[in-house]
Amino acid sequence: MADLTVEQRITQLQDRLDLQDLVHRYAQLNDYSETPEELISLFTDDAVLVGVFREPATGAAAVRSYAESIIAMRGSVPYRHHVSNILTTVDGDEAFMTAFFILVYRHAIYEGAVQLSRVHYGNFEFRARRVGDRWLISRRVVRLDPS
Hints:
It is a single chain. By secondary structure, this protein is an alpha+beta fold. It has 3 helices and 6 strands. The protein has helices at residues 6-32, 36-40, 60-74; strands at 43-50, 57-58, 79-91, 94-109, 114-131, 134-144. The model has no long low-confidence stretch (mean pLDDT 90).
């Protein structure tokens, strides 16, 4: 770090902040996006999605399908993602981030008369690529904690 100029250090700090914001935006738009395009805008056209309940999928059509299914599911199962412990490694125009998440959602039982809160937790792994002046997700992996 001693060999870096002030401008290079500021660039590194800005990259880290932008990447942390990307992780938080991903979580927030999973919970609140009104259109698929809002969530899609966070991904590269060749993004890879690896999840818990789906087969791995690649490309713009896979990201669109994911975004549409998230918005549709929200109508019947309200939920919130809470993200923390974001670690970021930047290598030029590529980055790798890990984050811990807690997912809280309500599950209606007995014909909607009773709602129970359920919790899942696990880890996100993201790869991101600088595209122009933005960082975009090129790979997203979700792993639930088995305990």
